Fold this protein.
Amino acid sequence: MKQFLKVVRRSLLAVGALFISLGALHAQTLDLTFDMSQLANPDYNTNNVFVTFSGQSLSATLGGTAVTLTGDLTPSSNPLTQSFSMAQIQSAGGFTVSGATSVVAYISYGSDTDFNNAGTTPSPVTEPTRFSTMEFTYNPAGATQGDTTYINSFGGGMNLTTYTDLAETQVQESRSFASGVTNASIFQNLASNTISSGAGYSSVVQTVTPGSGFYSGQSIYNRIVMPTTNINAISTGSNTAYPSFKPYVDQLITNAGGGSVATLGLIAPGADPTVSPAQAYIKTNTGTFNYDLNYNNFQTTISSTGGAYTVTMTGTVTAVMTAGQTPNGSNPATITYTGLTVTVQLANEQALNAFIYGQPTPGNVVTGVTFSQSGAGWTTLTNDFGSASTAFYYRIPNDLTEGLLVGAVGSTQPSGIGGLTIGQLNSAQWFANPQLTYGVAQPGSPFYNSLAEYLWDHSGGTLAGGGTFTDGGLYANSYDDRYASTLIDLYGVYGGQAQPQTAALNVSLIPDGNIAVGAVPEPGTYALIGLGVLLLGAYGVRRKRLQA
């Protein structure tokens, strides 16, 4: 469900972006290849590692034969395509993709059972086969991006790299784990960040014992189930495997003394709303006009009574007419909607953790979590823009939860921006500065999602326009796309500048290493991790585009 909500949310935003300019359709295709040559696990070969797709729409071929989705992606039924072995994919030279919307690629290790033409997508909690996922949307006239996602579970790492020609001779952009990081080291570190672990498919740390092969008779890692997957279990108190956010939030309440704990904003203070992240929507009640919607001053308070928590976010939304249109009396250049409030009632500590870890929206009901909105501004905004008001209603509380998950909320550490602490920045400024996260924001305090921190710290990549970054190259929280570095562009425009168009995307599985439970990391593993981070270089220039 969480995966579905994320990819559908991105599709809706892509539709919103198309309101600005559809652009010209190009007869371009994307060569999609998969590589497991670095996996180096004797239990796997090109005949027993598979790729299966699920999604809203897919237009692709393999060796000239169409790859067919069995149905549309829905919350209750997520049918998959047939499964393709790595041997089939490599023999055909990869997939040729001409269009894709919210497509998830499942890489299953050792078996295609429950994947090949399955009626529903596999559950990270109950699926016995190890698997990992990446996702992509490819539309040369609109959204074209992919990412590696571990918001549901971790079953194995991968690198995504794009190229400017089918021969794959020129790297254009990549999002990758640092050199030297293995699946074994990731499994071991994620397992150490849970409170409880053990064997069994309901456990956070899942293990299997193969009956044959290199690991026969040994307990080996299958996957780590991330908190977003267990949101309902967390909310009912039946799963306590993840560190609680109660100490963090209680400290915020005490330190704030009834005042605001965070300022939430889609754009930074003083930013030009016409060039800040495009949130284009059509105002249709008195004509057809394009506006950019933004906010930068939602003040957030949190209170607690009898073990229950109340989160209140109050501020304004501003609509700025996009260039090239003529304002009139009914459609001025700027419209401000004031007194908008979003309130979240959390019944107890379990609901608090479900709200933060699971990052639910008002449309995704979770036990003990209740959303409401108030203020005449919402009525006017909805009348003017329809579903756009819902998009902002959804986004505002998730700015807060993402800030809590990375430790930015209430941080007293210096930000290096205007003499302010990290906690004093508005959320748009947090998301424009990925280096101000986790242990940097909360040194000495476990006030963030520690499972996500490890993945964040050990991923990195190369930017399209040059430069590198050494963290945040993948999803570990549902709204990590606010930092933009999770996303890899699949067409030739980056930051508004034309680039050589992308012709190929390669998905490469990283080495397994010794994935036996309790195994001592391979000699030199941690030294290699440090070396890999150094090789990636200092923080490069990051794209500042935000996603909703």
Q: What stands out?
A: The chain has two domains: 2-239+446-536, 246-440.
